[in-house]
Design a protein that fits this description.
single chain, 804 residues, alpha/beta, six-stranded mixed beta sheet, 18 helices, 27 strands
Length: 804
């Protein structure tokens, strides 16, 4: 066996390029961890004391002996610089920790104190920095942040030794890095209430304690708690805020919950009185009550006002009147903070111009020290970025981002399918524009967003390192960290790519209330899509035997179920679509398709039941989970009756074989593309996004692409781009097409969330068309980007003139 089991460079966690190496055999200068004593300060902060014990427990999870105390030849010192006597007396240069928010330093010492042969020092600039340093060490040793939440068990590898060439110093790039638990009605809340914490009959203190511990391991520091009516208010249980403080978690509240108030659960007066124009005094008293109770804790205060839930603010008629009302209540909220908490200039506050509030922003007198939090469009595309003046605000900027969403045009609450490549591109643009104060991700029920959340928090900690890896590189490193099998990344990458073209929750091509409409996809395109799923399922079966027995539950949750569930949802949908198209003209063929759809449905339900078994009973629901919120959820599939072929008695045969999920595919000749990209000047490829090998992103205005076709009489040119937003608010994407010596403009409007936007986010592409004139034959044209960051996702030619 090689001595080095892990030569881990903590690049993903954002560490400086000093290697913390872990080996199964001693190497020159290494320190053995078996039998190590974890030493916290005598008067350690409760968080530091917990982390010291947690590190000892992590070592035991790895099969090592460990304890918390102060006597032993080999020790791990954990504490905050200036508060840990042994660390402070060790002679280390800790000057870089001074004033460094949440930073830590790890160093290895020889003979640092009488009776101590070696000591591994984990020193934090503050208590959270101390915790992040300890969990960086744990992760390097092989303990995943998801060991509790996803059953990713650490592998017991035998004795472990650590070595360090030079002190390792690290800290976050984004100040507040947070999670929003939302739309919890169908997952986290029923699981907590009935499986994990039945004594609370809700998301209670034991559940939140596990959430806080997860955030620390992911290097997060902020939580917006669950806020739907089914969950009640976070602060209804006085223990919750105290637990957050103990674990060092900064508590905030969503865009619709100013000053830590959960309106759907806590506003007891008639809803129409939650109106600052008509009932300012009772609303102020309502806010003041929370500030008096919670002002002693670390909080992130949301300012502004919307409706009781996710709805528009009551009061004010015209735009000017609404702006005046918001300016008045903003001033009053600052007075409340000054009266009950402290100087507003020193308190972290945010303002989120979400949905209908965004157009009001130009007329608001927002104090300069308030963080302006820019929302995405609920589907991963950031709607607006700070301009030069906004970037200079002392409060800085943040982003509220969705990995899960309940709302129009169609929700996505089941699986986690937003590609890390999209998150990195959008958050990278935001970071480059100065958005570095707060990043919050709406991740629904936490599960099954484990991969996306790992990426989210790693990206927020060190955007440069994670962006440089790209989607494939990041997923390979994550697969090695979690399972020791890098090839899992190819499954994840393929899963994100195929589902980016259409999420499983969006396998419906009409919106609620519209007439039923079929996908319109050509048989060859459907065949190609299902073939990609089939290849991924085959890879899954090939890799599964390489997963250690202790990690197979985690593998099922993070790898197997998401892929198989999305593949089976596609199998079912397209079989039902072909059934409807062929029933009248080919009843026998339609009956076979009905059986195929029913078989896929039964296998999917069996796999979902397996996911929901044991300790995770009730955590995951296939969409739609019930008949609520139907105005923006897809319809449940209507399966044919048994007499119409809707019977599959052998559906669950060979259920452990993923490759058996899909019916054998007929041979269909693929359709060759009519256009191919020739030269590209000023573009960079972004693997993991769009169709094919990735989108091309314009690196500057004027970047040019050459498109060529060997010969065609098709007359309609369609150019596709991702539905991102320009850096200039409200501006349309623009390009020019040069063909036969003539220049033609193309525009992709990016205005309000209208019908074109709805179709764009469901397909993750928007299209501009141009009717070509001239004779048939070889075609060569050039596309010139009008702005940087335009993301080209292919072009095609259609017969006939373009339709409006």
């Amino acid at each position: 066996m090689r001595a080095l089991l892990l030569g881990l460079w903590i690049g993903l966690a954002g560490a400086a390029q000093a290697g913390l190496q872990v080996a199964t055999k001693a190497t020159p200068g290494s320190m053995p961890l078996d039998g190590a004593v974890i030493v916290a300060a005598p008067d350690a902060d409760p968080l530091e004391a917990f982390v010291a014990q947690d590190l000892a427990d992590d070592l035991k999870r790895l099969g090592l002996r460990a304890s918390v105390g102060n006597k032993g030849a080999v020790q791990v010192w954990i504490g905050t610089a200036g508060r840990h006597p042994a660390i402070d007396a060790a002679g280390l240069d800790l000057s870089r920790l001074k004033g460094c928010w949440e930073c830590f330093q790890i160093a290895l010492l020889r003979d640092p104190a009488p009776g101590v042969r070696q000591a591994l020092v984990v020193a934090g600039a503050d208590r959270r920095g101390t915790a992040y340093g300890a969990y960086t060490l744990s992760q390097a040793l092989g303990v995943s942040p998801w060991h509790w939440w996803a059953d990713v068990a650490p592998l017991q590898r035998g004795p472990l030794h650590v070595s360090l060439d030079a002190p390792l110093h690290d800290g976050p790039a984004v100040k507040y890095r947070g999670l929003f638990i939302n739309d919890e009605d169908w997952g986290l809340q029923p699981w907590a209430a009935h499986t994990f914490e039945p004594e609370a009959r809700n998301i209670g203190p034991r559940t939140y304690e596990q959430v806080f511990r997860l955030l620390l391991r992911l290097k997060g520091n902020t939580l917006w708690p669950a806020m739907h009516q089914v969950s009640g208010a976070f602060n209804a249980n006085a223990r919750h805020a105290g637990l957050a403080q103990r674990y060092g978690i900064v508590m905030g509240s969503s865009h619709a919950e100013p000053l830590l108030r959960n309106n759907v659960a806590e506003w007891k007066a008639p809803h129409e009185q939650y109106n600052y124009a008509t009932h300012a005094e009772p609303v102020r008293d309502y806010w003041a009550e929370r500030l008096k109770a919670n002002g002693r804790y670390d909080n992130l205060y949301t300012l502004g006002m919307r409706g009781i839930h996710d709805s528009g603010m009551q009061g004010g008629g015209t735009v000017a009147e609404k702006q005046a009302l918001l300016n008045r209540l903003l001033a009053d909220q600052r007075e409340l903070l000054a009266k009950h908490v402290g100087d507003p200039a020193t308190l972290p506050q945010i303002f989120v111009p979400y949905k209908e509030v965004l157009p009001l922003l130009p007329g608001l007198a927002l104090p300069d020290d308030v963080t302006l939090v820019w929302p995405d469009d609920n589907f991963g595309y950031i709607r607006q970025f700070p301009d030069a003046a906004q970037s200079r605000r002392s409060g800085g900027s943040g982003v509220y981002y969705h990995l899960s969403y309940l709302g129009a045009p169609l929700s996505y609450l089941w699986l986690s399918t937003t590609p890390p490549a999209l998150v990195a591109e959008e958050m990278g643009r935001a970071f480059d524009a100065g958005v570095q104060r707060l990043w919050v991700a709406n991740a629904g029920d936490i599960k099954p967003h484990e991969v996306n959340l790992s990426h989210w928090f790693d990206l927020a900690w060190n955007p440069a390192a994670v962006r440089a890896q790209g989607q494939g590189g990041y997923l390979r490193e994550l697969a090695r960290r979690l399972f020791g099998v890098a090839e899992i990344a190819e499954i994840w990458d393929g899963y994100y790519r195929v589902n980016f073209e259409r999420r499983p929750e969006h396998l419906q091509f009409h919106l609620p209330g519209e007439r039923v409409r079929r996908s319109g996809m050509a048989p060859a395109a459907i065949h190609e899509r299902l073939t990609r799923f089939a290849m991924l399922l085959h890879s899954l079966d090939t890799l599964r035997p390489r997963i250690a027995a202790a990690q197979r539950d985690g593998f099922f949750q993070l790898v197997e179920y998401p892929l198989r569930a999305s593949a089976l949802a596609n199998e079912r949908f397209f079989a039902l679509e072909r059934y409807a198209a062929t029933m009248e003209r080919d009843p026998a063929g339609a009956r076979a398709l009905a059986a195929q759809a029913v078989r896929a449905d039964q296998r999917l339900k069996a796999l979902t039941a397996r996911y929901n078994s044991g300790r995770w009973a009730g955590i995951l629901a296939e969409e739609p989970a019930d008949g609520l919120w139907t105005s923006y959820r897809q319809q449940a599939p209507l399966l044919p009756a048994a007499g119409l072929g809707g019977s599959a008695p052998d559906a669950l045969r060979d259920l452990t074989n993923a490759a058996a999920d899909l019916a054998p595919l007929p041979l269909i000749e693929p359709i060759a593309p009519l256009l191919r990209v020739g030269a590209a000047d000023g573009w960079r490829r972004v693997p993991g996004l769009g169709r094919g090998d990735g989108v091309l992103a314009a690196q500057r205005a004027g970047a040019t692409l050459t498109l060529e076709s060997p010969g065609t009489d098709a007359a309609c040119l369609r150019v596709h781009v991702l539905p991102t937003y320009t850096l200039a608010a409200g501006e349309a994407w623009q390009a020019e097409v040069l063909v036969d010596g003539h220049v033609h403009p193309l525009r992709w409007p990016r205005g309000t969330q209208d019908a074109a936007w709805a179709q764009g986010v469901l397909a993750n592409r928007i299209t501009a068309s141009l009717t070509l004139t001239g004779s048939a034959g070889p075609l060569r044209l050039q596309v010139k980007a009008g702005q940087a960051d335009l993301m080209f996702d292919g072009a095609d030619l259609q017969p006939g003139a373009c339709r409006p």
